[in-house]
Design brief:
It is built from 11 helices and 12 strands. It is globular. The chain is of the alpha/beta class.
């Protein structure tokens, strides 16, 4: 008898990041595969993306984390087709009764109507504006956005209310919305972070199978910057023993494309992500898997992950200090700020009209 949730092997789930579909931490049973004696193995089927829809009751998610620079966010989608094996958002799928593994990248939830709910929330008399973060959980410009268009609807609401927004993405589909982003940026209402985790196409394809290539992401930075949108290069996550040697090169490439700021967060592996990542790196990079996982544990006090505020986003110890020193030195040399320009909240105004009832004045 063998585990059903054991690693399937590299390429078993073609075009996907995780190697298995291990059950979530809230499930009472672990499934097993039993040899029926017939022998042989069927080829793994091509996993196609399924998208369910959920009408949201609220649009804005609040947080009080001292590690984050924002206290509110909007998530048009749950799950992410980009399939980044290291994604810290994967454990959230367990709350849906789904696997943080392959389910996370193949069984998505779109939230149609989220723009209308957001507008209702912004019209509340008690609402006080502050930068709204999008893309800090799952990517709003993942491939499914091309057919659903939820992110553009959200941006149209924010533009009408002149509400500040900070976006993080790996997706080139953001270029579709440059018209809105440029208009908002001209008023100090918008900034974008573009995640560039490696400059090596082959590494990116294994680690982030459905994300645009590194060169394409640098082109996104260039096009946003040319349109007047402040852009930050996010060298996150920095993977110890795999991509950490690229830190300076990534920041230099981002600065050359027009980024004005930079960010760096070492790899963090909460909950089920630790096992998924360890299985993946052993399969994808067997020659360095041991080194990668040892250095991950060095960063997190001997554990795969340390969830404590103040340490979870930066790590601890010698390697964490070295990464920070290299990051600060590179930013100073390249003229990159470590903070994005402050966005304006004072322009926020509730429109007199609604989409259903335009103003007569």
């Amino acid at each position: 008898m063998e585990r059903l949730d054991k690693p399937l092997g590299h390429g078993a789930a073609r075009g996907r990041g995780a190697l298995d579909n291990a059950v979530g931490r809230f499930e009472p049973y672990t499934r097993v595969r039993v040899d029926d004696g017939w022998g042989g193995e069927e080829a793994a089927p091509l996993l196609r993306t399924q998208v369910a829809e959920q009408r949201p009751r609220s649009a804005i998610t609040r947080n009080a984390s001292p590690d984050l620079s924002f206290d509110r966010s909007v998530n048009p989608y749950r799950g992410c087709e980009h399939g980044c094996v290291y994604c810290f958002a994967r454990p959230g799928h367990a709350w849906l009764g789904l696997s943080p593994g392959l389910d996370f990248e193949t069984r998505l939830v779109a939230r149609p109507g989220i723009a209308e709910v957001l507008e209702r929330d912004l019209r509340r008399r008690a609402y006080r504006p502050a930068t709204l973060a999008i893309g800090t959980y799952t990517d709003p410009y993942q491939p499914v956005e091309a057919s659903h268009g939820l992110m553009r609807e959200v941006l149209e609401v924010l533009r009408r209310f002149r509400h500040p927004v900070g976006i993080v993405t790996k997706g080139s589909l953001i270029e579709r919305d440059i018209d809105i982003l440029a208009e908002m940026a001209a008023e100090g209402l918008c900034a974008v972070g573009v995640s560039v985790t490696t400059l090596y196409r082959d590494v990116a394809r294994k680690m982030e199978p459905r994300v645009p290539t590194p060169a394409r992401r640098l082109q996104v930075i260039e096009r946003l910057a040319r349109a007047g949108v402040p852009v930050r290069t996010c060298a996150s996550p920095l993977v110890p023993g795999l991509t950490d040697h690229e830190l300076e090169a990534i920041l230099e490439a981002g600065a050359g494309a027009g980024a004005v700021a930079a960010a760096m967060i070492p790899l963090r592996l909460p909950q089920e992500v630790a096992g998924l990542f360890a299985d993946w790196v052993a399969e994808a990079f067997p020659d360095r898997a041991g080194k990668v996982m040892r250095r991950v544990r060095d960063l997190h006090g001997g554990q795969d992950y340390d969830p404590e505020f103040g340490r979870r986003m930066s790590g601890q110890g010698t390697w964490a200090a070295l990464y920070q020193a290299r990051f600060q030195t590179a930013c100073a040399r390249l003229g990159l700020s470590r903070e994005m320009p402050a966005l304006r909240s004072d322009l926020f105004a509730v429109p007199l009209d609604t989409p259903e009832q335009p103003s007569l004045f």
